[in-house]
Amino acid sequence: MSTLTEAPPPLAPQAPDPRPPKRRGRWTPYWLLLPGILWLIVFFALPMIYQASTSVQTGSLEEGYKVTWHFAAYWDALSAYWPQFVRSVLYAGTATILCLLLGYPLAYLIAFRAGRWRNLIMILVIAPFFTSFLIRTLAWKTILADGGPVVGALNTLHVLDVTNWLGWTAGDRVLATPLAVVCGLTYNFLPFMILPLYTSLERIDGRLHEAAGDLYARPWTTFRKVTFPLSMPGVVSGTLLTFIPAAGDYVNADLLGSTDTRMVGNVIQTQFLRVLDYPTAAALSFILMAAILLMVTLYIRRSGTEDLV
Amino acid sequence: MPFVNWLKRNLVVLAGLLTLGYLLLPNIIVTVFSFNKPKGRFNYEWQQFSLDAWKDPCGVSDLCGSLSVSLQIAFWATLGATLLGTLIAFALVRYRFRARGAVNSLIFLPMAMPEVVMAASLLTLFLNMGAQLGFWTILIAHIMFCLSFVVTAVKARVMSMDPKLEEAARDLYAGPFQTFFRVTLPIAAPGIAAGAMLAFALSFDDFIITNFNAGSTVTFPMFVWGSAQRGTPVQINVIGTAMFVVAVLFVLASMAVGNRRNRQKA
Amino acid sequence: MTNKTDPTGDVRLTGIAKTYGDFTAVHPLDLTVPQGSFFALLGASGCGKTTTLRMIAGLEEPSAGTVHLGDQDVTALPPYKRPVNTVFQSYALFPHLDIFENVAFGLRRRGLKSVRKQVEEMLDLVQLGEQARKKPHQLSGGQQQRVAVARALINHPKVLLLDEPLGALDLKLRRQMQLELKRIQTEVGITFIHVTHDQEEAMTMADTVAVMNAGRVEQLGSPTDLYENPGTTFVANFLGTSNFIEAEVDSKSGDDIVLKAGGGKLVLPEARCSAPASTGGKVLVGVRPEKISLTHADDAGEIPEGRNRITGRIADSSFIGVSTQYVVDSPVCPGFEVYAQNIDRDPRLVPGAEVVLHWNPAHTFGLDAAQSVFDGTEGSAGVEEAA
């Protein structure tokens, strides 16, 4: 087919062309890319530009908005909502660390110790995705209910005293506190940590463990010096896949938290959908995007894993 | 002492199983509470066993309608994203071209962007264009954010495919089209299927982007969100449990078929 | 069945070359492979032999030159329009199709409807009739290799191209398959062009061998010709082992050249010298290790007249079974290798013993002294033989 689109080769014998013949289908990659890339440009890149322009507009719903290069919107947004920004980073960061601590043993278990249970455990990790995450997040309301068994146990073990002192909980409640929000975030994004970890652990040759053992490394040393460094690509992409959505999330803060646990996502949502203050919302969203991109770039630079895609 | 040693050896297993429990606990709660008969409007406290919700899953107004909207959007979004994403994946793996880096970034960025940012900016675009928010704007948004995940899944598969197989096909008298449909596509199929399943799950479960761009259309996650404010019907748990069971059965069945096929051939 | 004089099966490469940017994989090359022959392209990895093969198959477009099959210029034809089939390195069997469908693939693509009989016959020929419904990954390496051959041969190509077809097999199976391929080639009479890095494989199977190095054909000829009379140190080292002595041309007597090396004289038939030999000029004198006899210095008088001789001291000896391999240090050449058949073992020939090395001058060959004596040794023949 591609030969039809090219000029037909001359039939008369001719001197051999010293240049290599043009590769057939030189345009093929561009045709393959066109529809999808166009889609991303129009519905992903272009909106970013619109949003950037909206963030420097002034006006009102009734009279319409005009670009007035009103950069003060950024300053106003930041000074009004910096606690929400700080909270977002704090909650998402804590959740990411918890995900890594909780997810690593499970990924390790699936990769090296599960044997014939490997597939079953994988299914159990992925299957909850199919129950809407909102329903599952609502279930935490039941689990962490006031006076329920979980809160009771935490109380008996004096864990709540510690978290109260840290300001993570308030009194005998876990619901509507930062702890509940972090717990929900950790839960919701844990599979995004486990899957990349598993992928990079699974690639490790099991004989490396034996070799390390043979070379006088104790199990813990083997882990520290061999397994963990080799799983770094998984740690990096898992951290990003957990932190980014967690920082922008507003569902957990809304369902499990209170007005004191609002994150930046909640503010953007409210400004956009309830208050209809588009410039402020756009500025907030733009700041969040820039902050995340900056962090991602720095993080990837430092950990040296360029090819995450 | 033997117990301590055993504990030392299996510490990682125990920790892993605890995490697995943490992951599954909400699903257990969801399932158990699908048999509840709550007193008030909210289904957060256990009252008494009942099969009412299971007997009448559509008994709440709008619930099954929203489910149907979600399934339709997920279906078309999966189709669109899989088609476009597969084309991109092939272009990336099989061809050299200019602007490769830019294309890679454009694929990567949607995955590295908080949903709320994409949701808000897309809404700005739609508002600026004066687009009518609803089914179509949701579909457009879903195809957009599923695309990158499909590209990643298909790319991995195509990259691990031996390019010699296509050369062998061409050597054995298969033209470009026959080579693609007889060899390339069947071998890439598992990657495409994985990408499609991922797209379906992402689209069906998406809330944040949908919430911004839905207008008055209500998808299933939006219905759940709304009910969290007004009162949660038990039927939500029924649907959630059913989806979970169907997914597990589907995977188990496809694994069983795969195993049997292998055993027959061996 | 075979018609050796029919020119339609000749493969003719004219000035064919391949460059990738600044890198030249194949320098302009002329080569004719006659119909019905078993032709081997031999060389280390990266020497351009596979690129040459791929240009014949149509999988690589030549930067210059033409490919003819008989009288037809196929240079511009895509691979699926060339009457040429390939047995790929590591086979490239389609993993999603069973053995039957793999073998039937080419026939089906050419629109044949009833392929069953042909496929079954072909599978019987390669003794895989029982495995028709298995998937490739369920077969052993040797079986997969036979499927790859069957899949190509069933199309009755004018030329069968084999790209390192035995590389993935273990030594014993490789020997067996070498004979098997040779048998199939004689039976079907198709031209085989075989790319390999294994000199032994090339020599056992091929009628004609082209030794390639750095994108050029170093020498072309029958295996015996290449071995007995190599034209360059590369060929001499790549095919087997050679000893080299740097010598100076002293005089000419009849058909022979007389050379000075160290204190002694060596005789080299002029016909076996590929270098210009003017009196006073330098020549590399080569001799194969198995052509040399070893005599203890005490018995030097018993050596017949007219043989080339060198003195030295045994540095090392290793017993191989059929032969004993000695390394002899001589003033004209350190590390001279000698393979002695284990017929009558002289117990005095141990490391440290003074010996005389002697051989028939007819086994001597002369090369241009301007080249390195190490070409073709490291990383090529040596390593690959170990693999």
From TrEMBL, chain A:
PROSITE patterns tied to this protein: ABC_TM1
Organism: Streptomyces tuirus
Domain ABC transmembrane type-1: 85-299
UniProt record similarity statement: Belongs to the binding-protein-dependent transport system permease family. CysTW subfamily.
ATP-binding among keywords: no
CDD domains, A to Z: TM_PBP2 (cd06261)
GO cellular component: plasma membrane
Residue ranges of the region described as Disordered: 1-23
Compartment(s) of residence: Cell membrane
Skewed-composition ranges (Pro residues): 7-18
Protein name: ABC transporter permease
Transmembrane segments: 30-50, 89-112, 119-139, 175-198, 226-247, 281-300
Gene Ontology BP annotations: transmembrane transport
One of the Pfam families matching this protein, by short name: BPD_transp_1
Domain of life: Bacteria
PANTHER family, per database record: INNER MEMBRANE ABC TRANSPORTER PERMEASE PROTEIN YDCU-RELATED (PTHR42929:SF1), INNER MEMBRANE ABC TRANSPORTER PERMEASE PROTEIN YDCU-RELATED-RELATED (PTHR42929)
Keyword Amino-acid biosynthesis part of the UniProt annotation: no
Alphabetized SUPFAM superfamilies for the sequence: MetI-like (SSF161098)
Topology in the lipid bilayer: Multi-pass membrane protein
Entry-linked InterPro entries: MetI-like (IPR000515), MetI-like_sf (IPR035906)
Entry keywords, A to Z: Cell membrane, Membrane, Transmembrane, Transmembrane helix, Transport
UniProtKB/TrEMBL annotation, chain B:
Compartments where located: Cell membrane
Database matches in SUPFAM superfamilies: MetI-like
Family assignment from sequence similarity: Belongs to the binding-protein-dependent transport system permease family. CysTW subfamily.
Protein name in UniProt: ABC transporter permease
Membrane topology, record value: Multi-pass membrane protein
Pfam families cross-referenced by the UniProt entry: BPD_transp_1
Positions of the ABC transmembrane type-1 domain: 67-257
Main location: membrane
Cross-referenced PANTHER family: PUTRESCINE TRANSPORT SYSTEM PERMEASE PROTEIN POTI
Transmembrane parts of this sequence: 12-35, 73-93, 105-127, 133-154, 180-202, 234-257
Keywords: Cell membrane, Membrane, Transmembrane, Transmembrane helix, Transport
Family matches, as InterPro entries: Bact_Polyamine_Transport, MetI-like, MetI-like_sf
Organism field: Streptomyces tuirus
Gene Ontology cellular component terms for the protein in this record: plasma membrane
Cited PROSITE patterns: ABC_TM1
Single GO biological process annotation from the record: transmembrane transport
UniProtKB/TrEMBL annotation, chain C:
Catalytic activity, reaction form: ATP + H2O + polyamine-[polyamine-binding protein]Side 1 = ADP + phosphate + polyamineSide 2 + [polyamine-binding protein]Side 1
Keywords for the protein's UniProt record, in alphabetical order: ATP-binding, Cell membrane, Membrane, Nucleotide-binding, Translocase, Transport
Alphabetized CDD domains for the sequence: ABC_PotA_N (cd03300)
Gene Ontology molecular function terms on file: ABC-type putrescine transporter activity; ATP binding; ATP hydrolysis activity
Gene3D superfamilies: 2.40.50.100, P-loop containing nucleotide triphosphate hydrolases
Its EC number(s): 7.6.2.11
Homology family: Belongs to the ABC transporter superfamily. Spermidine/putrescine importer (TC 3.A.1.11.1) family.
This protein's name: Spermidine/putrescine import ATP-binding protein PotA
Organism: Streptomyces tuirus
Taxonomic lineage from the root: Bacteria, Bacillati, Actinomycetota, Actinomycetes, Kitasatosporales
